[in-house]
Amino acid sequence: MWGGHISEVNEGARAADATASARSEASTVHRVRRVLAIRPFRRLWGVTYLCSVADWLALLALTGLVTKYTDSYMAQNFAFAGVVLTNLLPGLIFAPLGGLLADRFDRRKVMIVADLVRFGLLLSIAIVGSPIWLFIANFLVGSAAMMWIPSKDAAVPNLLRRPDQVETANQLGMVMTYGIAVVTGAGLYSILTGIQTTLHLPPDLLGEFGIANAVVIINSLLYLGSALVIATRIPELSLRNVHPVPDAGRQQRRAEEESGTSGGVVAMIRDGARFVRTTPLVRGLLIGMVGAFAAGGAVIGSAKPYASSLGGGDSSFGLLFVAVFVGAAVGLAGAPKLARRLPHDRLFGVGIVLAGLALIVVALAPHLAVALVAVAIVGACAGAAFLTGVTIIGSQIEDAIRGRINAIYQSLMKIIVFGATATVPLLIGLVRPRVVTVWGNSLVIDGTRPVLLGGGLLAALVGVIAYRQMDSRRTEPILADLRNAIRRRPRRVNGLLIALEGTTAADTATQAARLAEWLGHGTRRVVLATDPALNDERLAKLVAGASLSGARARALAAAAVRADIVERDVQPALDAGAIVVMERFVDSPLAHLSAVAGLDASELEGLADWATGRLRPDLTVLLDAEPAASDPQSSSTEHHWRVQQLLTEMAAADPGRYVVVDAEGTEEEVGDRVRTAVRATLAGRVSGLAPTTEPEPVEAS
């Protein structure tokens, strides 16, 4: 359990180094560039652009074409809704089938076939020229899309260099699908349909449906271009299991292999359902999204009458529409930064709970200004939760089942949003509007208020359930994580950092080793890190090689060495769930430098914060001993008293994190006091500590 110096026992160094490197990337632009530098992903991103533009263009083009087929005012009004419904309906029916195809067959071939099918169907619409066939073909186009999307989403993680890049890749995909592609599709439609008017071409130049058919044909060619690019330029889409996922995914694969049921479609459906039922992470993810999508459907269905109840009419509706999308954009942009301080499983649940609470504020808002702020918060929290959910699927679900989970995720979104949007107007109609006066302002209370209130309560409740299902850190309070996120401190997954501080390096080294050995009798992995600023020969080489003699220069060199060991060894061990015991982590070096060189303590503390990424011990054990005049580490007893005084002041300023132990006596006596203090402080807060009584040694036979 305990294996000496941390550099000798660091497990999974390659993955840990990658995680630490990713965490240090503070710039969103830098992260995006790193992902776009990966050629297969960059090409897939271009394919996503082609298909997304084609999707949005098809919505507009087919709506425009179907209105050409009839002179009926009622039928023309139904045109848009009919196109949307026939394109949405396949998601309710065929999404699980798309997931099965993504998990069982070559994803690249599935995507090629789906694109060719969409190309042929759209081309046939222009050739056949029938409104009935238009709706049938549009339904089949939507079905092909349900085959394409799960394969694409499941393949993305295999194109990346590291699993932690999944979040940035998902960000880029959403920006492309719901941002750049929307603008391009709408702009292209406007240009194509405006050519005839702009150039003053004769109305019958291209026939009765000429321009409309031409737009549909161009639309189909975009899908053909996507198929050609996938077939010739992205062979990597066929890769499988590039970044194996531990635990849940591997268990699912072993279960399928042992049962011999991985081949059949029915068996794959059954195994997927069993995986969802038996995996808390996925179960919580889907439960949470049910609440989030239901709340989203409530907002969509009640947006227009709610805007009217605020007394602003169409202008209020427009402002609310803009606010929710601006908030969603902020949430999508900010989620990766929050994820560096809050684990994804916690961030997902917290995001849904906050979205629900903000929706309650929307329901109770007495004024448009309050509603706009609350709606923006709903959008931000929902956007962060949605991105986090997609990231969890891409980075924590095994490749063998990722397609099915993606398909379930997509189908849930369509089913619940569609159902909630259709049901909400009926619920609103059950409540008769009333006018009340709030703070001198007239306020219309209609059915939108209870619907939004119910949606907010549902989202908050489901978010709590999802959080409890998914949370992997039951022993560590959520408030501590939220406090670290607010203070912009880095997150820690499961680890515990215990520091031993004191005036004498020999005492801290001895007691740190004893404490680590005792903690090693528990169920958690324990590693021991020595003080790099005093004992690591790297510092001596750095100082000697650079001929550093000034106190400030030595402090900077010590900070550089400390930053290296924290980033390379300490933080990865904490993220892996280990208990790290480190002597003289920050406080003792700060006190020594301040006492010896007279440097400003606050400046040194800022340097230490920067070097360690604001990492602070969960518990600091301060050895309180009377300094000996013969101590070789100091020039005088007065210096040691000064160091001890500074350490005591640090402990008094933060009593919740420090425990002071009398260090007078033998090593065994001091060690017993340290163990007693650590056990008393951490009992009930941290699992896996050493038992009260150490096990008896077993004699070798």
From TrEMBL:
What is the role of this chain? Phosphorylation of dTMP to form dTDP in both de novo and salvage pathways of dTTP synthesis.
Q: Name one GO molecular function term.
A: transmembrane transporter activity
* Span of domain Major facilitator superfamily (MFS) profile: 44-474
What protein family does this chain belong to?
A: Belongs to the thymidylate kinase family.
- Gene Ontology BP, a term: dTDP biosynthetic process
Q: How does it sit in the membrane?
A: Multi-pass membrane protein
What protein does this entry describe?
A: Thymidylate kinase
Location comes to: Cell membrane
Q: Which UniProt keywords apply?
A: ATP-binding, Cell membrane, Kinase, Membrane, Nucleotide biosynthesis, Nucleotide-binding, Transferase, Transmembrane, Transmembrane helix
Q: Mind telling me which HAMAP family this protein's record contains?
A: Thymidylate_kinase (MF_00165)
Extract one GO cellular component term from the record.
Answer: plasma membrane
Q: What is its EC number?
A: 2.7.4.9
Please give the catalytic activity noted in the UniProt record.
dTMP + ATP = dTDP + ADP
**What organism is the protein native to?**
Prauserella shujinwangii
- PANTHER family in the record: INTEGRAL MEMBRANE EFFLUX PROTEIN-RELATED, MAJOR FACILITATOR SUPERFAMILY ASSOCIATED DOMAIN-CONTAINING PROTEIN
Name the major location. membrane
* Membrane spanning stretches: 44-66, 78-98, 172-191, 211-231, 284-303, 315-335, 347-365, 371-394, 415-431, 451-467
The cross-references to InterPro entries, in alphabetical order and at most eight, read:
MFS (IPR011701), MFS_dom (IPR020846), MFS_trans_sf (IPR036259), P-loop_NTPase (IPR027417), Thymidylate_kin-like_dom (IPR039430), Thymidylate_kinase (IPR018094)
